[in-house]
Amino acid sequence: MTTRKSTSASGSMRVNRGLAEMLKGGVIMDVVNPEQAKIAEDAGATAVMALERVPADIRRDGGVARMSDPEMIEGIKAVVTIPVMAKARIGHFVEAQILEALGVDFIDESEVLTPADETHHIDKFAFTAPFVCGATNLGEALRRISEGAALIRSKGEAGTGNVVEAVRHLRNITGDIRRITQADAAELFEWAKKLGAPLPLVQEIAETGKLQVPLFCAGGIATPADAALAMQLGAEAVFVGSGIFKSNDPAPRAKAIVEATTHFRDPHILAKVSRNLGAPMTGIGMDQINERYAERGW
Amino acid sequence: MSGVVGVLALQGAFESHETVLRGLGCATQQVRTPDDLAKVNSLVIPGGESTTMSHLLLTSGLFDPLKERLVDRLPVFGTCAGMILLASHIEDGRPDQRCFSAIDIDVRRNAYGRQIDSFETDLDVQGIDGDFHAVFIRAPQVVRYGPGVHILARHDDDVVLAREGAVLVASFHPELTHDDRIHRLFIEMLLEV
Fold this sequence. Notes:
The complex is a heterodimer.
Chain A: E1 8-10, H1 13-22, E2 27-31, H2 34-42, E3 47-50, H3 55-61, H4 70-79, E4 84-89, H5 93-101, E5 106-110, E6 131-135, H6 138-146, E7 151-154, H7 164-182, H8 185-195, H9 199-208, E8 215-217, H10 224-232, E9 238-240, H11 242-245, H12 250-262, H13 267-273
Helix pairs in contact in A: 2-4, 7-9, 8-9, 10-12
Chain B: E1 4-8, H1 14-23, E2 27-31, H2 34-38, E3 42-45, H3 50-59, H4 63-71, E4 76-79, H5 81-86, E5 89-91, E6 105-108, E7 119-124, E8 131-136, E9 141-145, E10 150-155, E11 158-164, E12 167-170, H6 181-192
Parallel strand pairs in B: 1-2, 1-3, 3-4, 4-12, 5-6
Antiparallel strand pairs in B: 6-9, 7-8, 10-11, 11-12
């Protein structure tokens, strides 16, 4: 008959990468209050990112962007049953300690907030909660993984409603992974040097052809077609920030982006869900912004 | 033969299941539409977010055809969110969340708490020699089971692996640990039903 065992471990890399695995094929939505969090969950979001201002507003307001008020994060945790994520500044390990104490399910060490440390990222192995970090290229992704990130998202350019940078970053990452699988053993040393990444991680990619953790897309997704584009380019899920709640009619757009992420290879379904969504967020061109958040991170 | 094993691919860890099944020599089919469902002889419902999957089952027009197939005893294996979807009743779910009542169990969502309470541990599983290393992620708990439900593993007092007829459910993630023995149990089950 069955017997019992009770030895167990929390916060391991397997447990934390496991949550990232569970979020695959889904949409994680930025929300600034409990009402938006409910709309996101109703629309089929796999998780919400609780923050005080969406990136488009952070961009407009300027100043220093910090971790959100714990009261606000708890208000959002109280109304949804799906995982709740929240952002800490790059290198601000005390904000991360506070988020972990609040029971946040995933901590985003995010370039959308103003960095607290211009040299070091957070030592993510020091935490039980999992971390997601942004990356613009494979070297950055591998440095974040070597610091303990359980999930990588391409950075894109948050708050622009413009998918061009997300596409660039995804192609940077997946293109280099493909090239590394063609490299011989001697060339891998050069790749590690060029990427500024630990050699064992580069060697592992040469063998598996995959990043060690799931790869999601963020930064500029505004339409169902944008989400499907990211997925066809190799993203395994998408984060949508300003794109939903800065559009004219958030609820139907949120639902449509969820369906587009599931049926990302089916143009007939994509055509159906893209109809009558109202105006997307206006968006801005890369030549019109004065600060690139994607350049934050080292 | 086990025929074509479908993997519900609306959201979640479906690719990890496919990898294990292919390693066991199974032909697999990702299921996102009723047409996909018509091609399969059995189904795996993976982990992921059960509320998201419940929503997408309805928008994809899959809920009713899958319900019919389950009534006709389609062999099915649900892990974590998959177990929630196959249950008879869900506690701590959303009010509009649907489930298939394919197995006579009631489950509580996120019963162990938040992600910081997720864990891994070794289990004794009936029919498997030696420990099975299991990963529990925001896992559900079986809070009631009917007399026809056969318990295959427990963790502390909680039922974590169970079978009734052609329905196998796990509250953990055998697709994440490079150990195919529980998927083998499912394949053996396909051959006997």
